Amino acid sequence: MRITKYTHSCLRLEGAGVLVVDPGEFSEVSALAGADAVLITHEHPDHVDVPAVVAAAARRPELRIFAHEAVLTLLTDVAEVTTAVTTGEEFEAAGFRVRAYGGQHAIIHPYMPVFANLGFLIDDGSTNVYHPGDSFVRPDGVAVDTLFAPLNAPWATIAESLEFVRAVRPGRAYALHDGLLNERGSAIYGKHLTEFSNTRYEQLAPGSVLD
Fold first, then answer.
1. Residue 112: predicted pLDDT
2. Cα(68)–Cα(85) distance, rounded to whole angstroms?
3. Structural domain tally of the chain?
4. Are 65 and 86 in contact (CB under 8 A)?
5. Which CA distances in Å does 80 have to 57, 60, 147?
6. Most buried of 47, 67, 110, 190, CB within 10 angstroms?
7. Residue 2 phi, psi dihedral angles, 5° rounding
8. Distance separating alpha carbons of residues 126 and 75, to the nearest angstrom
């Protein structure tokens, strides 16, 4: 499995096919080039760039999009290539096995509405990757090889991020949801995660590739 980390919360996974997770407005549109399938964790624009996804589906009619039904209301122009996903569901996308976890976005504030959110565990038969979207929901009972952990958000603290990584106990962890941080913030947060997460942690520059 070849993983490319794009800006903020977007990942591109290449194996038997090309799978893109959360191509949002903060991320590079190039992440969608040649994609066979797209996973969208929730409806917020930093996780789904609707015009970019619609354009990708127009260029590549075989593209398939998987997301919670709340997201699909934004993609009615390409409804024929979308599939609604529910918590606990397992399915195949671009040659990968995927399982959906969670169901609810982390609480931003009690005064704000609660949004749907699905985390995705993606497996190619030899290794796996977990993308939690905007949540700290753990894929309990599963040994996670590669975890992408939210680093900074209106709904998160560094303490929560650190405890999430420690609870999942992945083989390695990388920063996710990091497009709102400047260099100073990244250095401070990264120091805590490097020292106390009990795994190998790194914040990747956009475009970085993992094997």
1. 86
2. 5
3. 1
4. no
5. 10, 13, 32
6. 67
7. -110, 125
8. 33
Asked if the structure places residue 26 within a domain, the reply is yes
For residue 58, being part of any structural domain is answered with yes
Q: Distance between CA 39 and CA 55 in Å, rounded?
A: 16
**Cβ(150)–Cβ(105) under 8 Å?**
no
CATH code where residue 57 lies: 3.60.15.10
Phi-psi category of residue 48: left, alpha or beta, with phi > 0 → left and psi -120 to 50 → alpha: beta
Residue 9 to residues 3, 24, 110, 111, Cα–Cα distance (Å): 13, 7, 24, 25
Is there a domain that residue 162 lies in?
Answer: yes
For residue 49, the one-letter residue type is D
3 state DSSP class of 103:
strand
Label residue 6 by pLDDT band (50, 70, 90).
Answer: very high
Q: How many whole angstroms separate alpha carbon 38 and alpha carbon 35?
A: 7
Furthest C-alpha separation in the chain: 47
Contact 22, 10 (CB under 8 A): yes
Tokens standing for residue 171: 């083989």
* Residue type for position 182: N
Instruction: Determine the Cα–Cα distance for residues 77 and 186; give it in Å rounded to an integer.
Output: 38
Residue 208 domain-assigned (yes or no): no
Q: Which domain holds residue 6?
A: 2-202
Q: Which tens digits make up the pLDDT trace of 169-195? A: 999 999 999 999 999 999 999 999 999
The whole-angstrom separation of Cα 165 and Cα 138 is 9
Average pLDDT score over residue span 93-100:
98
Q: Could you give the C-alpha distances from 28 to 52, 112, 182, 211, in angstroms and in order?
A: 10, 29, 18, 20
